[in-house]
Structures are given as structure tokens and as C-alpha cells.
């Protein structure tokens, strides 16, 4: 019987792994490769803040899992993992009902010989009262679209009513997502004003960025943190550090002293955790953030047939470094590359190699205003060069999925399309 590899999660790491394993093992008939995801399409998660601002149209950028499977010799199954039976080597996919058809699909089981869990991460509200009920998260395309439509509908309504007071937006979390979202929302507001032949616009958004720690972007050098803060403030964005949010209600956010920050739209981008269904799933070891504990080979600590990669894996850095691998797209890409080789070795009965995190740097984009980066150790770059490297990250991801030739054709198509569609999604 052909070896069955099942990958759960079609994010950056999971889809890259399925694509490469399809060619390495699926095409020559050495293994069957199956990708499972609850969505039908993929979009690179670091782009969700652009979808939320309307700068990026998800419909033009998303990739069909079924098409990718057909092109790359693996199988796609639509479904959400709800359980695991390690003794029988099966995963359980949850029952679901069609949103439009009402058709009921019962729960099903899917067998495996090697299981790879790559379900990514979701926002972590740390149990803060009112956050789940009143804040918007940016974990999926659907949530990003909800934020975009929320903003657009509010704007249309305010214009119709002749309301001139600013729309108050609070973004919680001074990491990359929060910082980039603030800049994109402000930039999108400029563009919207242009389409409405208005010279004003900046005063119609009142954006506040809240961070519980002493500075923005704590994982990056102080120089970048300081430069980003100065840029945001020059744009007109209010930045408040050392401000922990203790609860939220319909009127806004409350800090540790009980002071209210009145807000019309609240976005939570202050930390991540793995999906809750992984919590000690069938006895697998997890940490307090529900991440699966893995060995340096990316095998889970209690089952060598189950691997985990990306944000849902608590993986040691390796090489004598302390702590776990950070939840970054580059880490998921590196781990997918390692697993392609390790799963081939597993089929050949050879020992597996260990993963060691290689920090390739971090890049931050402030929309059209500026960009910052830390590359090649601690070298700091800014401006056009940083913008170039930032844009190249997505093209590298596309190249891993489409191949260099199709990516080049897509680049050409994108360049042509810029002259045939608006700069902002206006519907």
C-alpha cells in the first residue's frame, strides 16, 4: 500500500510542503500526498492587512487549492480537522452545512501514515473581557474583508449624513501587523479621498495604536522601533506605548487605570496562539499557547508519525539558542523545506535531520510612506531599498507555489492590470 502523507493546513508552510512533496513523492508514485483545509483558496497571511485596507483584492490574489493540487500531483480535501485517533491513524473532519445550499455534510475520517499539522495561528486575546465580542481580528481573509466592509459602510453612511467628525479607529498591538495596518488604513483613506475628489480625508480618520510594552516592534532593533514610531506620528497616527488594554465594550477600550478610549472600530493584533482544538489533542503535548511541542526533527514529542510546522509548532531554535522559533512566515518556509527532505528520508528508512532557525531578517512596510528592515545580521535599511525587499518576499512565496516562469507571467499580468482597475477596492 502506498504511504499516505496528510497535511492539515494550507497556509504558507503547509501549501509549500504539499506542492513540493507532490513533485518529489506524489508524481513518481512513492507516496500519496493529501492537503486538508477548511477554505477553498489560499492567500498569503502577511497580506491580510492590505486586504483589510482595500489595497489588495483577495479575489485577484487567492490561489485555488484544487487547481494547485491538480497542477502539482497532490490531492485536496475540503474540511476542518476536529479530532485525531493516533491508535487508528485517522483524523476526523468536522461536519458542516453549506452556507447557501443548506446541504449537510457529515463528519468523516481520513487515514494517514504520516501526519503533518500546519494549521497556523489565531489572535490571542489573553482572556481579556470583551475583546472577542467587540474587536475585529485579522486571522483570515473573511475577517480582513469584514474589517474592510465595516470601514467602507461606515464611510458611505457618514458621507450620506454629512458627518464631518473623524471615524475613531483603535488598533491594539504594536507588532508588525498592528503597525502595518495603521499605515495602510491611513494610506487607503488618502486614496478614497482622491476618488471622491476631496482634498481633505486625513482628518476623517482618527487612528490610535496601543502597545502594552515600552516600545513598538520589540523584536527589532531600537533604531527601527524609534523610526517607525516617528513615521507613524508624522502621518497623524497616535501611538501609545506602555498601555495595556484590560477590557472592552461597545463604546471602546479601557486601560489599566479604567480610562476609556472611545472607538468606533476596534482591531486586536496583540499576540497569537495556536487553534484551541490542538489542546492536548489525543494526548499530544502542547504548551500554554496550545502549540504542539515538537522535537528538532519537527516530530511531535509523543508520536513520531505526527509532525507539526509553522506557528502551531513549539519548536526549539536549535544551535544552542534558547527559546522557541518565532511565529514568522520565513520559519514556516524553512521548516517546509526541511520536511521535504525529512519525509523522503523517512520513506527511505534514513535518520531525520534537525531544524535550526536561520533569521533572514525582518521587513516592515508603512504603506507608500516608508519601509524599514533588518537584514544580513543587524544591518538596518530604510526607504526604497526596504520597499523592494519587502515586495520581493511575496514574490518568493509565489515562486515557491507557481514556479519561476508562472510567477514572471503573473508579474506581467499584475503590471498590466494596474491600468485597468482602481487603486483601492471600492465595493
Automatic annotation (TrEMBL):
Residues annotated as domain FAD/NAD(P)-binding: 4-336
Presence of keyword Iron: no
Keyword annotations from UniProtKB, A to Z: FAD, Flavoprotein, Oxidoreductase
Gene3D superfamilies: 3.50.50.100
Cross-referenced InterPro entries: FAD/NAD-bd_sf, FAD/NAD-binding_dom, NADH-Q_oxidoreductase
GO molecular function: NAD(P)H dehydrogenase (quinone) activity
Top-level taxon in the UniProt lineage: Bacteria
One Pfam family it belongs to: Pyr_redox_2
Gene Ontology BP annotations: aerobic electron transport chain
Cofactor(s) required for function per UniProt: FAD
Family in the record: Belongs to the NADH dehydrogenase family.
Name of the protein: NADH dehydrogenase
Native species: Rhodanobacter thiooxydans
Taxonomic lineage from the root: Bacteria, Pseudomonadati, Pseudomonadota, Gammaproteobacteria, Lysobacterales
Amino acid at each position: 500500500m502506498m504511504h499516505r502523507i496528510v497535511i492539515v493546513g494550507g497556509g504558507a508552510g503547509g501549501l509549500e510542503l504539499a506542492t513540493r512533496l507532490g513533485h518529489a513523492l506524489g508524481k513518481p508514485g512513492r507516496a500519496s500526498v493529501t492537503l486538508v483545509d477548511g477554505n477553498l483558496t489560499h492567500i498569503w497571511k502577511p497580506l491580510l492587512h492590505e486586504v483589510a485596507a482595500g489595497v489588495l483584492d483577495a479575489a485577484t490574489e487567492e490561489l485555488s487549492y484544487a487547481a494547485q493540487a491538480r497542477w502539482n500531483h497532490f490531492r485536496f480535501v475540503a474540511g476542518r480537522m476536529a479530532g485525531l485517533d493516533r491508535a487508528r491513524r485517522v483524523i476526523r473532519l468536522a461536519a458542516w452545512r453549506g452556507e447557501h445550499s443548506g446541504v449537510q455534510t457529515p463528519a468523516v475520517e481520513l487515514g494517514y501514515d504520516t501526519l503533518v499539522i500546519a494549521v497556523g495561528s489565531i489572535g490571542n486575546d489573553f482572556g481579556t473581557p470583551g475583546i472577542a465580542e467587540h474587536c475585529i481580528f485579522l486571522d483570515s481573509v473573511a475577517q480582513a474583508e469584514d474589517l474592510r466592509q465595516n470601514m467602507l459602510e461606515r464611510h458611505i453612511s457618514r458621507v450620506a449624513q454629512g458627518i464631518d467628525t473623524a471615524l475613531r479607529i483603535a488598533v491594539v498591538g504594536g507588532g508588525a501587523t498592528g503597525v502595518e495596518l495603521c499605515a495602510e488604513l491611513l494610506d487607503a483613506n488618502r486614496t478614497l479621498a482622491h476618488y471622491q475628489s476631496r482634498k481633505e480625508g486625513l482628518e476623517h480618520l482618527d487612528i490610535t495604536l496601543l502597545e502594552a510594552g515600552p516600545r513598538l516592534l520589540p523584536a527589532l532593533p531600537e533604531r527601527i522601533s524609534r523610526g517607525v514610531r516617528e513615521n507613524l506620528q508624522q502621518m497623524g497616527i497616535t501611538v501609545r506605548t506602555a498601555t495595556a488594554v484590560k477590557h472592552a465594550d461597545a463604546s471602546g477600550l479601557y486601560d489599566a487605570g479604567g480610562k476609556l478610549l472611545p472607538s468606533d472600530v476596534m482591531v486586536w493584533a496583540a499576540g497569537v496562539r495556536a487553534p484551541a482544538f490542538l489542546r492536548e489533542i489525543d494526548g499530544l503535548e502542547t504548551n500554554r499557547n496550545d502549540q504542539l511541542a515538537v522535537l528538532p526533527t519537527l516530530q511531535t514529542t509523543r508520536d513520531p508519525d505526527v509532525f507539526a510546522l509553522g506557528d502551531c509548532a513549539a519548536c526549539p531554535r536549535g544551535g544552542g539558542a534558547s527559546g522557541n522559533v518565532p511565529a514568522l512566515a520565513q520559519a514556516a518556509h524553512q521548516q517546509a523545506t526541511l520536511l521535504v527532505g525529512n519525509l523522503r528520508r523517512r520513506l527511505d528508512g534514513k535518520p531525520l535531520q534537525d531544524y535550526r532557525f536561520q533569521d533572514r531578517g525582518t521587513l516592515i512596510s508603512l504603506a507608500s510612506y516608508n519601509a524599514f528592515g533588518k537584514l544580513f545580521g543587524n544591518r538596518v535599511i530604510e526607504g526604497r531599498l526596504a520597499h523592494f525587499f519587502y515586495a520581493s518576499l511575496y514574490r518568493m512565496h509565489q515562486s515557491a507555489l507557481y514556479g519561476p516562469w508562472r510567477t514572471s507571467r503573473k508579474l506581467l499580468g499584475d503590471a498590466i492590470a494596474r491600468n485597468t482597475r482602481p487603486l483601492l477596492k471600492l465595493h
